[in-house]
Design a protein that fits this description.
single chain; three-stranded antiparallel sheet; globular; Pept_C14_caspase; Metacaspase; Caspase-like_dom_sf; Caspase family protein
Length: 282
């Protein structure tokens, strides 16, 4: 019998002492984590929930590494994150574009690079199925894309004629000026980390990832759940959904506005058997 472990992270704020006074206040992320954990439990996962003040890099990576030590070929990890997304410049080379960016998950004490999450997933034994569900902004991969994403015109298209503070509250994206400020403060740390991550190699993890939006879009918060998580739960409908992972993504996407279109992608070579399963199957 396969084993399923799940880790659910919901951050309604971050530590302002770590982000130069910015607390990243959101409304629905902790609810998202609790609700996704309930889905996991109902489907036979052993779940762990990490909420705002405990959502540190050390706590989250410790849980991931503990899971990597337990799960074997044929088992499954479910990883969900609700909170802010951000990005940091990559000045370490290795890419033709001088404006390369690394996407981040904005944990309570610092930004966590996408390559760090990838490295944690690589630590799992081959054959472990990995499903990641991310309800956060996935910023663009170039400065031009991010400037377009956060322009007044783009914000008005997605959020109406709201004041910038209201847009910030409605979107799960770390403000551009704060991203730049924090990176300039911590650039030596991030550049060292990026160089270390580039040295890593090994087989790509066999993972299915469903993100709340495309690279050039913002992910919306909500009063109860994030917009993406809200629609995911409606499609899931307490387990009455029937279909595979691609069907699940498609049905969520159909419920979303065109300005926030969930993304489906894979890393490594997930088996067709995995992709054909009903979501959240242990």
């Amino acid at each position: 019998m396969p084993t399923g472990l799940s880790l659910h992270i919901g951050l309604n704020s971050v530590d302002p002492d770590k982000y130069d006074g910015w607390n990243g206040q959101l409304v629905a992320c902790e609810n998202d984590a609790r609700d996704m954990a309930a889905v996991a439990r109902a489907n036979g996962f052993e779940d762990t929930v990490i909420l705002t003040p405990d959502g540190t890099v050390d706590n989250i990576t410790a849980q991931l590494r503990e899971a990597a030590g337990q799960l074997k070929n044929g088992d499954i990890l479910l990883f969900t994150y609700s909170g802010h997304g951000g990005q940091v410049p990559d000045r370490t080379g290795g890419d033709a574009e001088s404006d390369r960016k690394d996407e981040t998950l904005v944990f309570y004490d610092r930004q966590f690079l996408d390559d760090e999450l990838y490295r944690e997933f690589q630590a799992f034994e081959p054959g472990v199925r990995i499903l990641a569900v991310l309800d956060c902004c996935h910023s663009g991969t170039s400065i031009e894309s991010v400037q377009e994403l956060l322009s007044p015109q783009a914000m008005e298209t997605q959020f109406g004629s709201s004041a910038p503070q209201q847009v910030e509250a409605a979107a799960r994206v770390m403000p551009m000026d704060k991203q730049e400020q924090i990176f300039e403060r911590d650039h030596a740390f991030f550049e060292k980390l990026q160089r270390e991550l580039k040295k890593g190699n090994g087989k790509a993890p066999d993972a299915v990832l469903i993100g709340a939006c495309q690279d050039n879009q913002l992910a919306s918060d909500g009063s109860v759940n994030g917009l993406f998580t809200e629609q995911l739960l409606r499609v899931w409908n307490k387990g009455s959904f029937s279909g595979d992972y691609r069907d699940f993504h498609r049905d969520i996407q159909r419920r979303m506005p065109a300005i926030q279109s969930p993304n489906f992608y894979t890393t490594g070579t997930p088996s067709e058997q995995f992709l054909a399963q009903k979501p959240f199957t242990v």
